[in-house]
Structures are given as structure tokens and as C-alpha cells.
Amino acid sequence: HAYHMRPRPLGLVIAMMKSTALTFVVLGVLILRATSSDSVTESDPVKLGIMQGYPLPANKQVTLSNWLVFPYNRWSFRNIHTLFPTGTLRSRGKVKQLAYSRKQIDVEKLTLVDSNGQNITGKQYLADEYVDGLIVLSKGKVVYEKYLASMQPYETHLWQSMTKGMTGLLAEMLIANGTLDASKTAGDYVADIKDTPWGKATLRSLLDMEVNVNESSTKAADQSSSLWSNLRIMDYFFLNSTVQAGPNGAAWHYSNMAPQAIGLVMTNVTRKSYYQLAQDLIWSKIGAESDANVWLDKDGQAASAGGLSTTLRDAARYAEVLRTGKSGRIRVIPERVLKYLRKNAGNSNITRAGNVLMLQQNPNMSYRSYWYQVNDGTGSLQALGIYGQHMLINPKDQLVIVQLASYTSSGPNPKDWTDLAETVTSAVRMQRLAAAIRKNLMTAA
To answer: Closest Cα partner for 17 from 268, 306, 258, 442?
Structure first.
């Protein structure tokens, strides 16, 4: 896989969570790679007739056996609530309408370099990455918004492991207000898992993915319908094949069971479900226009590693709140939490040797509370999920980018996303520079 280079542990696969991955060209002649077919049209679930009409032919049905298989995932990622039990994060309150800038950024006409070293347009990137929706906010205003493959603005879409960022944010807010102590172990809060490697780890080790374990591996073929219909997250804390590999903090190991442990801790301490907690602390305060939902296992335990689904616009609202800490004039995220999330965790020496390609490709990146810290002087944070989910929050450039996708396999090469994000960032900077020059010329005149 492109995101996770080592074989996936069984707990990683089941917990989803399957979830469990600057260059702005102004002048010059570019030779663009030819597109042999319109991949967006060919995999559009509506045009393919997936889950439409009655009776449904077998090859048009989305089931628990094929929901992760392309192109069925282009339908299933927008309809998780019809496949699995879900808990609702109610939006409540007044909707914060998104403002649209008069000066748009035409992402489709930008030129970037893909992971094969070839020049492509933004339009081709959207097709090649099987993007369902992409939105860009500059200084809080929408400068680009695009939906593909028949996705609609009102549809929710699975975040996959971008969910972890929400889990980490909630945990840091509870640590900041004294509800949780990051130096305590998960087992101190949840006795049922105290004898497992996850239960013996401190909350800080769990939040920063510094639990040093060896986990069993599995293949995508193991994802049978019975696995998903009988999914019980708690069982995967007790796999005999998961063993301590060394002292925590000595290695960086990406696993879905770390955020699942944090989810258990938060629900046990607050006596609220994951979705109630996320609703009360975050979702009901960001001015969301729609309810969100999170996938639940057969016991009602939320997939805090990768089960959140929201609309694209609400994902952008959430990211914007993470940029400013506020929704309008209302403080949502404490300033101390934002500063902590952005402060370099100083663990790039072990993250670059871990099992996520994004970190291997970007050796200066560090990782804290399920957020990828870019460490490029902008204070940027990134969240990502398999099948092409991405979120960039750039405080210095006052920029937010969110991408929702349904890639053909679990891990598109994250370098393609990195190039897109850098190119869009450069385009925004150039647009602002041009505006400043025009203003100065008008003032001088």
C-alpha cells in the first residue's frame, strides 16, 4: 500500500477503519500526459447504475463483501449509514454560511508534477485520484469547490483515518480541561484492557502513535462480509499476535488500535458516547449545515480510528475552526490546544522510519495527537485517510484544503496530494501578491 508500507495488522484492517494511505508554473511550455479515458465518468456510481432500480442485478449491488472494492466504494463511502449502524453528531444551532470569494482559483487549470515525474493538470489529478469532492478556503472564503462522479453537496462521505484527527482533538481538549491525564495509561481508565499493550501505554504514547508493538498481518481478501457484520472492536485489543516489541517511544508505529483505545478512555471517563462527545465539544459549535455520523460496531462502540462521515462543506468548516479556533466569534478550541497541536512534537527521527509513506516522503514531518505536522514554518497540520482522504490546515497562509475520494486501492501515492497542496498554496500566494500589486498601483496613481 502507498500509505502503509508494511503488511496491515488485522486490528488495523478491521477497525477500518480501513482507515485502518511548490512549484507554481507561471511561464514555460509544458507537455502534459495524455488521458486515455475519463476515469471519473467511467466509475460514476450513478452512471453505472449501482444500487439503482429493482430488482438489482448482482453486479450492481453494494454488499459487505465488496463495499471497499472499486468502483463500489464510490457509492459506499457516501452511504455508510445504509451499510452499518451509525451514531449521529447533530449539527444544532445556526448554520455558518460559507462565503464565496469573487476571485476563484481554477484548480483544474493548475499544473503540477505527479508521483511519476510527469506534468499534469489539476483536472487530470482529480480524475487520476478518483476525487469525489475538493474544496479550498482562502482567508475563510471558498475559492474552489468541485464535486465529481455525481457526488452532491448534501451527501456525507467517509473520512477514513482523517477521523483520527477528531479523536486526537477531543482527547487534547479533555486533557486541557483536566478530565484526562496524558501521563496515565489507558488501563488506568479502562480496566478491561489494562493487561494489553494498548492498556499499558500512556495516553501520550497512544496519541502520538509511539506504542512499540508487533501486530499480526492480514490481506484485503480477509475482509469477508462476516468480518464486517460481526465486527466487535473490543476483541482486537486481545489478539495474542500483538506483542510489545520494545519500550514505547523508541519507535513509531501506525495502528488503528491506538485511537480505538483513546476512544474507549474518553467514553468511559465522560460517560458519553464518542458521537455525543464530538457533537457536544465540536460539531454543534462549528455552524455545520448537516448532521455527521460515525460507524458503530455490533456493541455500539464507535470507530474512532476511521468511521466519521460528513459533507465536504462541513469538513471545510471543521478545518477552518482548527485554523482559527473559532466559529464566528465563538471560541470552540482552546488556544492552548491549538498551540500544542502545532508545536513540533520532535519525533521525526522515528516517524520517518515508521509504516506510513507520507512520513517517509517528508522526513521533516512529525506526528502529534493523530495529526501530521508539516514543519515548514506555516504551522500546517494535515490529516489523511486511505483511498485518498486529505485535509490541510495552514494557519500562516490562512488556507484550508479538503479532499474526499474513492481511489481504486487503499493507498494512492501521497506525493500526488503533496504536489497538489503545494501548487494550490502557491497559486493562492500569487493571487494575493497580484492583488497587492494592483492595490499599490491604484494608490500610487
So the answer is: 306
What is the C-alpha separation between 296 and 276, in angstroms, rounded? 13
What's the whole-number average pLDDT of the chain? Answer: 89
The band of 40, judged by pLDDT with boundaries at 50, 70 and 90, is: low
Share of the chain above pLDDT 70, in %: 88
Helix ranges restricted to H, 73-146 = 73-76, 80-83, 122-128
State the average pLDDT over residues 331-357: 96
d(CA 213, CA 128): 35
**Contact between 218 and 9 (Cβ < 8 Å):** yes
In order of 83, 95, 186, 245, the CA distances from 181 in angstroms are 36, 34, 10, 25
Q: Which residues contact 366 (CB under 8 A, 6 or more apart)?
A: 344, 345, 346, 347, 348, 351, 373, 375
Question: What is the grid cell recorded at 384?
Answer: 489523511
381: β partners: 373, 393
Which run of H or E residues covers position 327?
strand 326-327
CA distance 428 to 331: 27
CA–CA distance, 406 with 385 (Å, rounded to integer): 11
Question: Where residue 225 falls among pLDDT bands split at 50, 70, 90?
Answer: low
Cα(410)–Cα(401) distance, integer angstroms: 21
Q: What is the pLDDT of residues 373-402, one digit of tens each?
A: 999 999 999 999 999 999 999 999 999 999
* Predicted TM-score (pTM) of this structure: 0.90
User: Nine-digit cell at 184?
Assistant: 496515565
The C-alpha cell 500610487 sits at: 444
**Neighbouring C-beta atoms of residue 250, cutoff 10 Å:** 10
| Residue 159 cell numbers, joined | 473520512
Give residue-wise pLDDT tens across range 261-295.
Answer: 999 999 999 999 999 999 999 999 999 999 999 99
pLDDT of amino acid 19? 34
Q: Which residues contact 271 (CB under 8 A, 6 or more apart)?
A: none
Helix (H, G, I), strand (E, B) or coil at 227: helix
